[in-house]
Amino acid sequence: MKPNPESPLATSVHPSPNHGERRSFPVDLLILHYTGMESAAAALQRLANPVAEVSAHYVVLEDGRVVQMVPEGRRAWHAGQGSWAGVSDINSRSLGIEIVNGGHAGGLPAYPEAQVAAVIDLCRDLTERWSIPAHRVLAHSDIAPERKEDPGEHFPWDRLARAGIGHWVAPTPIRDGRFFSEGDAGQPIEALQAMIALYGYDLPVTGTFDMRTKAAVTAFQRHFRPVRVDGVADASTITTLRDLLAALPGRG
Ligand SMILES: [Zn+2]
């Protein structure tokens, strides 16, 4: 690829061979990841290793430096199996940012301030140049709830929202009340599943709170109600979901 990065926020190029032609359009999703590795150097090496068959368009280091690995017009291999709002070839339809962080395996280290600021600036640049709507800036865990948990519940989506990035409402505080959890069944579960699916999660409406429903609720909490991530659809979770749905463009 060209020696100069496409985003003005990136300072260097570390090319990866792991990309292909986009197969569907438009490019209207932005997926955020953590690397989940012990160091930035190890992550860059893996993301450029043809044997690993993974990559991302950009990597944001802990000190805020941004490295481009794949040309924006190409299909990077960051999302894997997943789905959002009926789109299943997420790689074709998205840009991917890997954020250097030890992840769950590394004890969920905090994201340093300089790194968060850089992620915000890069997201702003990419969403503006590619016209990606705020509600389509997502976590890897949102598009693959049963497989992925990145960028994790310590990722500051609220900070991004205050900077105008992503879709967000203030989560409803946790209080006592009715809740639904694995094993429950009936009309309220159908309604819950329908709301989760309407927001974009890939979840069939079965009327049974199964493992897949628990995974979707967990992913939702990781992104939108991170103070308690337990896969239980409590009143705070459901109200926050309702408020997000009402705040989608064209609703409310
Ligand atoms: Zn990921």
From TrEMBL:
Stretches the record annotates as Disordered: 1-21
Gene3D superfamilies xref list: Peptidoglycan recognition protein-like (3.40.80.10), PGBD-like superfamily/PGBD (1.10.101.10)
GO MF annotation list: N-acetylmuramoyl-L-alanine amidase activity
UniProt-listed CDD domains: PGRP
Substrates-to-products reaction catalysed: Hydrolyzes the link between N-acetylmuramoyl residues and L-amino acid residues in certain cell-wall glycopeptides
EC number(s) given by UniProt: 3.5.1.28
InterPro entries: Amidase/PGRP_sf, Amidase_domain, NAMLAA_amidase_2, Peptidoglycan-bd-like, PGBD-like_sf, PGBDSf
Presence of keyword Hydrolase: yes
Residue stretches making up the N-acetylmuramoyl-L-alanine amidase domain: 16-152
Record's keyword annotation contains GTP-binding: no
Key words, A-Z: Cell wall biogenesis/degradation, Hydrolase
PANTHER family: N-ACETYLMURAMOYL-L-ALANINE AMIDASE AMID
Family, as annotated: Belongs to the N-acetylmuramoyl-L-alanine amidase 2 family.
Name under which the protein is recorded: N-acetylmuramoyl-L-alanine amidase
